[in-house]
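[recover] target loaded
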């Protein structure tokens, strides 16, 4: 390898073994999506089937040799298994491949760590990472065990391993304490309401439903001024300019994953925390999938559990190119757009989705021009405090002409308080 590939993630070799145990097998396509969303660059996908995992290396010796050769050919930096590996299997494989080995749990944790934005989300993810690590502690220290000490390693008769276990336990305990506090605080104060600024639209849905494709398609389509600030700040947030509805922030969340390892469930929910404060959810469904309805049900269940039931949503039925049907927009009895059929990969129906988002967002926003005379300074101050004033000009007669944009609930509240005074 003489040249680095530009801007690519870590070069990864993917391994998926089919144990033929009926339906419990993971979906290889979903696996590839996961690796991509973790920022990996998959260069090879090795598949095999076995009766049962090998206790030492998980796969048989022939496969080990084949993977090692693939790693060498591609100069891969990491081998990722679509399975749960034991700590010793991970270690043995790293020795064989001479590069990092990651299992499914480690991969998912990495994605959560990149996506967690709220304080609670970060804590939950760190907790899961520590718990995952504590089973793998034997790892880095085996070569030090023999030295029994050495500068900076001499404890009062305590091996490095014991020190680490103790530090980990203390750290886990501290995090549990902080999580507890976060929860109590949340119950006390109503979530400080977000400023009346740019509405957030969050994408939710299964990993393989085409969420990232849709996210990229929306942010790249001509309507939008890509906002450089966000682009560098966070790969999962973009600012979009919608016609007739001003700007929205599009947020891509962590994808739902089938057979999520049990101890990652809390971290997963916490990573989705911020969808509670979104103004609109786009629930992306793979319309061509046989498990479409189970997935929809499962997504809804999780949204209920994290308290996002009341957030308005538009269902996005993706992959209509596989269904041989055209794009369309479904409305409910009140005429509100509730479902859009489209294809994120071909771009068919994207315009309908944009229209639906604009309608649903504008629905909740007031966009008005006001003339306030000097006696209404209280109202003017209140509008400024809400961050609702888009522009202001003063007339000669001391009247100020304001252009305001704010959520309808805030607007109604202001009007009500004006009546009282």
């Amino acid at each position: 390898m003489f040249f680095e590939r530009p801007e690519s993630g870590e070069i990864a070799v993917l391994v998926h073994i089919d144990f033929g145990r009926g339906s419990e097998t993971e979906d290889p396509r979903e696996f590839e999506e996961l690796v991509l969303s973790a920022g990996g660059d998959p260069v090879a996908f090795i598949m095999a089937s076995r009766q049962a995992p090998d206790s030492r290396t998980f796969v048989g010796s022939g496969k080990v040799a084949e993977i090692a050769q693939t790693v060498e050919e591609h100069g891969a930096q990491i081998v990722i298994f679509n399975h749960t590996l034991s700590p010793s299997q991970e270690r043995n494989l790293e020795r064989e491949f001479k590069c990092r080995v990651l299992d499914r749990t480690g991969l998912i944790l990495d994605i959560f760590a990149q996506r967690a934005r709220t304080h609670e989300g970060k804590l939950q993810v760190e907790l899961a990472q520590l718990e995952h690590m504590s089973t793998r502690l034997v790892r880095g220290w085996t070569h030090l065990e023999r030295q029994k000490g050495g500068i900076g390693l001499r404890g009062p008769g305590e091996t490095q391993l014991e020190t680490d276990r103790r530090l980990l336990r203390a750290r886990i305990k501290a995090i549990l304490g902080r999580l507890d506090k976060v929860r109590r605080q949340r119950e006390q104060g109503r979530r400080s309401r977000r400023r009346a600024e740019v509405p957030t639209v969050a994408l939710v849905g299964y990993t393989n439903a085409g969420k990232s494709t849709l996210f990229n398609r929306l942010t790249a389509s001509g309507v939008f001024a890509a906002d450089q600030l966000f682009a560098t700040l966070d790969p999962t947030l973009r600012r979009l300019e919608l016609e007739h509805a001003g700007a929205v922030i599009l947020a891509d969340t962590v994808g739902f994953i089938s057979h999520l390892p049990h101890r990652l469930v809390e971290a997963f929910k916490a990573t989705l925390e911020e969808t509670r404060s979104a103004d609109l959810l786009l629930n992306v469904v793979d319309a061509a999938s046989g498990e479409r309805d189970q997935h929809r049900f499962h997504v809804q269940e999780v949204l209920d559990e994290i308290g996002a039931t009341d957030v308005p949503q538009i269902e996005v039925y993706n992959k209509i190119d596989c269904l041989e049907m055209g794009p369309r927009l479904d409305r409910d009895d009140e005429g509100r757009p509730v479902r859009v059929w489209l294809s994120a990969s071909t771009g068919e129906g994207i315009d309908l989705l944009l229209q639906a988002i604009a309608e649903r967002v504008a629905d909740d926003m007031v966009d008005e021009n006001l003339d306030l005379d000097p006696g209404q300074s209280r109202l003017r101050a209140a509008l400024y405090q809400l961050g609702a004033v888009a522009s202001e000009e003063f007339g000669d007669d001391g009247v100020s002409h304001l252009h305001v944009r704010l959520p309808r609930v805030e607007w109604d509240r202001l009007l009500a308080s004006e009546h009282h005074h």
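[recover] notes: Residues 10-102 form a domain with the Rossmann fold fold (CATH 3.40.50.11060).
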